[in-house]
Design a protein that fits this description.
mainly alpha, MetI-like fold, 3-stranded antiparallel sheet, 4% strand, transport, membrane, cell membrane
Length: 301
């Protein structure tokens, strides 16, 4: 490690006694205004930074370690929270006998149907409200009013409408996922760059061509943001809806485990929901990178 002293003007000043003798004797003291900079030794190997992916794993690993420590020492009782190894063994057993796969497939089917109906309805309403003033007057106010009502507060009414079968579960997921898609898509349509619209009118694009080539591609980023929120909300609503007189599904599995005090099964169900949420979010991120590659190229130019 080498040292370099700079004077107030940023020029290198002589270090040591020679530097002090060249000027005022007080220059050798701390009031001289000299700043000493430590330079890295070029012969010393540079320290490699820890990859971000490994740094992000540190928190979960510590959490599991403390969890295992509490379970092993008896600080966490099994009837309160099962230990990590017990949860892993239970998850393996449920997967091996087909119980986990069967209930997971049913939960995925409910989410897929709810997303299909909810996203389709939200996109249609957002396009109508975003492109036409009359459509906004007729559509936006009722949607905003319904959005203010808690989704789970509609469960009794939904049961009266659809019964306690599959329809009520799909309806609740569809209703919960429609609002974030509508809001973000509507805002994205209204926020399309006016320069693109003017350019389209300059080349005399018709209304339908303008919507298809300018408005909808310009609103795609907002739609994908809404879709990410919708996927997160869909799993939250599914947890509750699968406990409404259900006979299958991950939520049903957790509800049965609650009845018999099986905390290991409950944690397995929570882990499955968490993994599904992360995978669905990663899928939308990948879709966003692929679908918006043209936008990044346009902004780079």
């Amino acid at each position: 490690m080498t040292s370099l002293a700079l004077d107030g003007s940023g020029r290198a000043a002589p270090a040591g006694p020679a530097g002090a003798a060249a000027g005022d004797p007080a220059a050798a003291g701390p009031a001289a205004g000299l700043v000493e900079i430590a330079l890295a030794d070029p012969l010393r190997p540079a320290r490699r930074p820890v990859p971000k992916s490994l740094r992000r794993l540190l928190g979960p690993v510590l959490l599991v370690a403390f969890w295992q420590l509490g379970s092993s020492t008896g600080l966490i009782q099994p009837d309160i929270l099962a230990g990590p190894w017990t949860v892993l063994h239970t998850g393996y057993s449920l997967a091996a006998d087909g119980t986990l796969g069967h209930n997971l497939a049913i939960s995925l089917r409910r989410v897929a149907l709810g997303l299909l109906f909810g996203v389709a309805a939200a996109v249609v309403l957002a396009v109508v409200a975003g492109l036409f003033q009359l459509g906004e007057d007729l559509v936006d106010a009722p949607v905003q009013i319904l959005r203010a009502v808690p989704i789970l507060g509609l469960v009794p009414l939904a049961i009266l409408w659809f019964g306690i079968g599959e329809h009520v579960k799909v309806f609740l997921v569809a209703l919960g996922t429609a609002f974030p898609v509508y809001i973000n898509t509507f805002a994205a349509i209204r926020g399309v760059d006016g320069r693109f619209v003017e350019l389209a009118r300059t080349v005399r694009l018709g209304r339908l061509a303008l919507i298809r080539r300018v408005v909808l591609p310009g609103a795609l980023p907002g739609f994908l943001v809404g879709l990410r929120f919708a996927l997160t909300i869909s799993w939250l609503i599914l947890v509750v809806s699968e406990q409404i007189n259900a006979s299958s599904g991950i939520g049903y599995l957790m509800d049965q485990a609650r009845t018999f005090g099986q905390t290991d099964v409950i944690v397995v169900g929570l882990a499955v929901y968490g993994v599904l949420g992360l995978l669905s979010d990663a899928l939308v991120r990948l879709l966003e990178r692929r679908a918006l590659a043209w936008r990044r190229g346009l902004e780079a130019t």
